[in-house]
Amino acid sequence: MRLGLLGFPEPDQLRLLAWAGQAQAGWPEWCGCDPHLADAWMIRGESVEVLGRDAVVIRHPHGGDERLALNRAEVDRPLAFATPLPEGFASAEFFESDDEKSVRQRLQRFEAWLRPLRSQFALGSLLVERMGQFKGGVIHVTHEGRLLAVIDLDRWQSGLFIPARPVDLAMAEWVRRPPGAADIPSSFIRLPLHRVMWTYAVRTLRDVLPARYRERTMYLRRVPRVPARWFDEVHLTLMRELMVRPAAFNDLCRRTGVAEKELAHHLASLYHAGGLTTDADSARRAEPAARRALVALHFDQADPNPEALLRTGHSDQSDPLVPPSSILREMPHSPLRTVAGKSAGPLVPDPG
């Protein structure tokens, strides 16, 4: 799981990440990441400035001038504030950042809140392992007589029983069913399989990039159909590079400067979400749609000519898309927003 730490000085971050990274049997392992991409947030209370009932500003990074605005009414993931909290600020979600037991208790609360995400991760892991057994069709995943998941490999859709636990999925039986059994019960959450696979591939510590993607020329088949804010800067760079010129693994490593391990990890998430291919003919047929989708990711950039976004490679440092970060930081639906300047007045909710 991915943990975002906001407003903490470096020694506190290192201590928290050391505690969070200690794997325990039956529980997920946490690692630090860009807060914009985190599954849960720990926020230093002393770095918080209260603007209203729900609006706060966080001084992040600690000691810097950058500040991030957060409206708690828009939050879409679990969070907790490290004590002491600002005067007049109330939150039931708090912990003591210098107490390992308090930190672990908070992480376990995060894990309970994130059970549906953890179950998606578990389902994605099992799909990677079993994909060779099922080339298509409908699969029912059952445990002790209860249906936990429906997987339609022909339509690339799935349904997941919301209370399902990762351990239940790990012990479940996979049964091939006729096409008429593809209906997803109304009580299940509907999940396109490319989202399930992305959820797994971006979080796993395993190397799940198929061997052929280290040996053969790879092409961008499509921009994975996941929310734009799920892409980090490396994903965007790799997609753009492959649209400019297809590449083998070692060539792409040289062109982008991304380390081999990190490159394999990011390529794996693009591949498992349907974004890559080694079939040149398939890529050629899909290129117009892939090009349009890639341009759409950069709609808020300064260059008014969208075709210019695809004419130059990573080595062109004058390119306005290096780094292509605004789509991650300033999208209207992002819970964290950068505060311009030092005045936070406009962020106070309008009482009218």
TrEMBL record:
<protein>
    <submittedName>
        <fullName>Uncharacterized protein</fullName>
    </submittedName>
</protein>
<feature type="region of interest" description="Disordered">
    <location>
        <begin position="305"/>
        <end position="352"/>
    </location>
</feature>
